[in-house]
Specification:
Elements: H1 3-12, E1 23-28, E2 31-37, E3 42-47, H2 54-69, E4 73-78, H3 79-84, H4 86-96
Parallel strand pairs: 3-4
Antiparallel strand pairs: 1-2, 2-3
Amino acid sequence: MTDAEKLLWSKIRRKQLKDCQFYRQKIIGNYIVDFYCPKASLILEIDGSQHYQEEGIKRDKKRDAYLKNIGLKVLRFSDGEVFENLPVVVEKIYEDL
């Protein structure tokens, strides 16, 4: 896990948000998602700089379309958001659970 993923994991593991279980590095179809909550059909992705380059943006759009097509919601946060605004990130996740 990246440092940003470790930081977020410390806030969502052990059913800390609405008693919802999250799993790390979950395989879904041909993809590995950062965090997955089956109870809420929610995926969390923490994006580093490679996700903001042209190729990364294209890959993420394709991946998100697949995940949404099978009934999952995807929330994406940048590493910076996690480091600089962790309470806001956690609140957004809480609202979507």
